[in-house]
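Researcher: Watch the backbone:
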Amino acid sequence: SDEDSLRFIYENIIKSKLIVSRLNENAPLINITFEDTIPKRATNYVDRLIQNFLEYKKEQKNEKHTNVLEFIKKQEPIVKGKLDDSQQKLQNYKISNQLIESSTKAKHIIGELSSIEIKISDYNLKLEIVKNLQHTVSRNAQMLDVIGPSLTELGDEVINRQLARLQELESKRSLLEAKYTDEYQELAGVNNQIQNIRQKVRLNIQNLKSALQYKITNLKNLKLGLEKDLKDLPEKEKKLADLTRTYEVNAKLYAYLLEKKSSNEIVKAATVSDYSIAEEAYTPSIPLKPRRSLIMLLSIVLGFIAGVIVAMFHNAISNKIHSKEDVEHVTTIPLWGVIPVFKSKVKKRAIEVFDNPESDFSESFRKLRTSLTLMSKEKNSQVILVTSMNDQEGKSTIVSNLGAIFQLAGYRSVVLDLDLRVPSLHKTFDLDQRFGVSTYLASEGEVNLGDIVFQTEEPNLDFIPVGITPTNPSELLLSSRLEVLITELKKRYDYVIIDSSSFGKSVDVFSIFKYVDISIVILKRSVSKKIHIKKLEKVIAKYKLQNIGFILNANSSNNKNEDILY
């Protein structure tokens, strides 16, 4: 509909650009501002808005006069027809009966009846006004100030005094609302007074309506009595008096309607709005937008913010390890090896060193093996722990291939899976997981070492799985049988390679440190974060750990000479 379309335009286009504010707290002036990209259109809109507002307020004040004129417009032809008809009947009756005028008694009765008829018509007109006022107030309770002139014409001083007091309170409330919220005590009191007076005005209007209806009823009863007296006159005189009374009543009533019509038209034409324009709308000499100084300032601020965001983004990216240089810049903990990206497509036993012994991947493990054997040349057996800062950094892959590279050099090696939380090495070696280290640690000597050691397909390379995943991994690793197990393994093997859970997931690895000779922490390129290295440094300092170094996994560098650092 048209109303919905106009509402949509106002809510989505006009509302955000229109500002109506009070110019001064002590003066009844409002300021209207409308922003637009076209100056002339903005000025025209404000002018039209004000004119429509003034016309609307004027129409509100004229509503009573309009309603009265509508009522008179409907009654005028009816009364005029009755007047013409009664005049014709009176003349015809006088001519046919050769009568000139009524007797003195008949004249008195006719005069009284005419006066009563005029009063009844006057009260009916006032009653119509009151009904219209009630209808106006029922539609909008805030329009009591508009009906003041109508009540003045009705002559009810009580209601007029109440309306005067209401206007004073409305003005006082406007001043208070400009400074305080509705919870302010004085403003709340004024609101209560306004509400009470409005209720009294509505009640008094109802009482005025009842009073008019009562007067009309009494006049009609008087009219019936006089009409009865009229019937007691002689037949011809009674008929003449009746026709005369009808004619005079219609004549006076018609004159009364014409008088009211004229007076209401004059008042309506002279009505002006309670509001006036103090200053016509105009466009400022300088546009509100864009402001060059503001744009320059915003550009500087936004540029600074963008720089900060870029710096933060770069810092977030650079927080990850991307090369061996990143490791060297962050920490003094040694980097023992760099393992290239695993590129093999042929996968026989899931251990790249066995499947592709001539690959760059396998060669990097040879260099790592050399580094580790140089570190342990004075010992007959070495226990090597492999862990990581978080999961998914290639820890288990490093463990299995590290065991394989020692086996290829003829060393007796065993891989011990101590990742009791998420074991995976049994899948790599394709061996049974039903018995393993958890069974050994949980027993009181009933399970022997031979029950949990499994031979792989390669000689000199054995594997000890986790076994059944325990519900208390941390407690099992605190068992004294773990020391017995590692001591026995050192007697049988040249290298014991342990896979443990990661630093970030549990504290299990701390129970193993005291049994190992070398600890390797895996860092994965573009995954591991520099902050984790700082955390590891704090752990090393706190527990005074020795022989700890990093291996950078999944490196993309093409420089084969940087795979290992001695």
User: Anything to note?
Assistant: Residues 558-566 have pLDDT under 50 and may be disordered.
